[in-house]
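Can you give me the bound-state structure? Components:
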Amino acid sequence: MKKYILIIIIISLTLFIISGCEGPDQSNQKSITVAEQYGLAYAPVQLVKELGLLNNEDSDIKVEWKQLSNTTSIRESMLAGEVDIAFMAIPPFLIAKDKGMKWKIISGLSESPLGLMTNREYIKTLADFKDEDKIALPQPGSIQHILLSMAAQRNFKETDKFDDQLLTMNHPDAMNALLAGREVSAHFASPPYLFLESKEAGIKKILSGGEAFGGDFTFIIGVSTEEFYQQQSENYTLFLKALREAIEFIEQNPAEVSELLADNYDLSQTEMEEYLTWPGMEFTTEIKGLEEFLAFMTAEGYLEKKDYQRSELIFAEKNDLEDRENNEAEQKRGAAKNGE
Amino acid sequence: MGNKYHQRLIWITVLALIWQLTALSGIFSEMIFPGLDHIFLALIESFKDGTLVKQIIFSLSIIIQGLFLATAAALILALSSYFSESAAGLIDTLTALAHPLPGIALMPLILIWFGSGRTAILIVIIHSVLWPLILNLSTGFNSIPDIYTLIAENYRLNKLEFMFKILIPASLPYFISGLKIAWARSWRALISAEMLFGAINSLGGLGWFIFQKRVFFDLPGVFAGIIVIIVIGVTVEDFIFKKIEIRTVKKWGMLK
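Here's the bound-state model for the whole set.
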């Protein structure tokens, strides 16, 4: 019996030691960790990185860029406290929010054309899909999946009509499979894959993101944890400023941006510019379609909690931010005066 | 025997208790470290709506099929390398090349050649099982005491009789431990393949089940899937393999 007690003590001690190891000096350091992902819709984030916009604002700030392959792993590393700011579509954000993750939207990033592309001649509309036709998309619960469900609901009153035909694939694999034309009949693509596929003979678009959604919507949003927002509000503000600068730059000067980013995307400069200015490709901080996604996903059981206030989902908006900056400036001035 | 299960039960209880206390203590957020109550609720929920049972059957059927095919192939290859020297050279080379190669590394190729369906998962399983089985079988065949082969010659057994009456029974301990390795490796291969390849008719096996729970940010659900894998693994090890050993190699006095 003594032996057992000893071992139990050792195990519990180990557990406490492990829990004590958690993050040493997290709060006071000036550092931001940003998760990046590949895709044209993330161009402003790439621009912030390439131009070092954050360091322009504050040369002391330490920025770490983390390459993560998909939304799920980004979410997980944010939960583990390894990433402060990330970019993703609205549905994966809402799913984690609903499960209790403490995070909110910083800003919109981009709107983008999306499309369900098929390589089958007999598929002209959604109704032409046979049971054995497989549709490739990133993962269940992704924006592509939710859009497909929305279209299925609108056309057939059957949200999960295509759920048995989904194949989880990342975009590059899905594009290869679509071009190979065997396993996969359709791919819900985003740029640049959407553009590359639309240039191929025999591949056509049968449904656009807008048609599925029934209007315009924000494709990618920036998100951050409440912890980062509260504990490092200065860095938060800095990042937001840099991001807005980048978005403005792209909108006003796509040619120059294309030159800067072409290498990042392994595209020629002309291609890059063509893609950045493709109809429907918009870079804006505005957040569109949040309510619609929320309503649909709640109605169809993807989310459990209802009635989110806008303020529960989005961090204090632009005006508040400027107010806060002014307040801070005033406080500093006040402090300086007091010091005199 | 009874003592072993007794001990195991005690340890599982202790570990579960520590787990639950850690969860209740609130050191970690509930999203990172869910309590056992949440996990078992998720497990019961998944059993109730039938999804889990379907996935278990799907996974097990692929594994059994894969193990069966791989065992048959390994037997044929190991036997031919025992009887023919040139075959031995070829099989030895193939094993040396393919054995260290993880199935996951082959995924991109398999995806292109076989698509992402059931066949692909089956091939990953066979690949990860076949080579260790061949190695074990060959070692078993080659470590048979000379006296056995001499007896076979004495009795003028033909090759088939020699194989089934002497060679295979005499190397059974190696065969069984090879099968145990194969079983464990096939589970690993299966789960990772299922996670990568995505669902086919929403039937993607246990790996897919876990992946889906992960995507929907349902950590208790992830743990529920893991528990099912553990339970199946332990059951097969403790009941099926133990029973086979008791009835054969232990009864024959080849294994203590």
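A couple of observations. Chain B has one domain: 50-250. Chain B has eleven helices and no strands.
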